[in-house]
Task: structure prediction
Amino acid sequence: MKCASSRRRRRCRCGGFDRRTRSFPHAQFLSNGNYVTIVTNAGGGSSFCRGLAVTKSRRDPTRDPGSQFVYLRDVRSGSVWSATYHPTAAEPDDYMVEFRAEQATFRRHDDEISTQLDVAVSTEDDVEVRRVTVVNQSTRIREIDVTSYAEIVLAAPADDLAHPAFGKLFLETEYLADSAALLCHRRARDPREPAVWAVHVLSLEGRPQGPVEWETDRARFIGRGRDTDSPAALDGRALSGTTGIVLDPILSLRQRIRLVPGASVRLSFRDRHRLGSQRRPRRSPRSTATRARPRAHSRSPSRTRRAACVIWAFRATRRCCSSVWRRGCSSPDGSLRAGPDTIASNELGQAGLWPHGISGDLPILLVRVVGRRRT
Result:
């Protein structure tokens, strides 16, 4: 596959994308069977766990919505961008996205600062890892604020869509200073309901430049009349450290790093979901999620080999799943639809599916096998 860019052309081995805004967003699905993360080539998407929405999920045919991002801000110049194209939409000097079976990788270059964001899901725990590597390729010392942002839900997607403001009233946040983690749980409305917990933790491979900051109030983070593309928290002010019961909760952690010329620093933002315990998680959030990405990287290829799934099959499967998801949740994709003549010949419409026990209310993917590959 060749990836076209206005600045350069390069060849990708595993389905890469140079373009930030495409006619139809391409999505990658990362899952261990319980925890599912959907991420698009521009940084949109959401996360789910055991039937619950961990982060906000919205269907919008006009845009590529997202609910979890990583911001970067140059302390001296004040310039702000994100590790993915969304949400700031700041035009990078170079941008590359690579989807693999075990992770999604976003590489970009902005003002002599290179970043690489790796998104993966643990194969054993309900943990999502977003690892950011920042490299200073300039000839001067750079100080960068790295800030995470996640709109937390911890409820069924239908409930959040029907009553989003009401559902947020039952969320409560807490900061754990000993592990640089934010803890969020949903207070049960019924004693029979299981407790739901989420942990957002930051770990740094390198020397920090200042203490960790945190925020759980979206109104304070975004600011009045603003949105995620230009939040007030990135105007140079410190995060307020608000926790407890807030009207619109988020999970946000910030760490300032200092990079000499040629140096690099790696940060990891991990989200862990826990269901069914009336007490908060006992194990350290940092130790629970530390092995998430290495295990996802080591186990996914072995599972792929056992399923006899070669790279071309992975690409085709991802493209089909991405098309179905886009049809129901994001920009409608007509690239795989039948031709106009075939569609016009359908005189029954949706009613033609009913005798077969198919309602037609949900997107349908039809696969036609034209041959068998011999090995």
In short: The domain at 2-306 is CATH 2.70.98.40 (Beta-galactosidase; Chain A, domain 5).
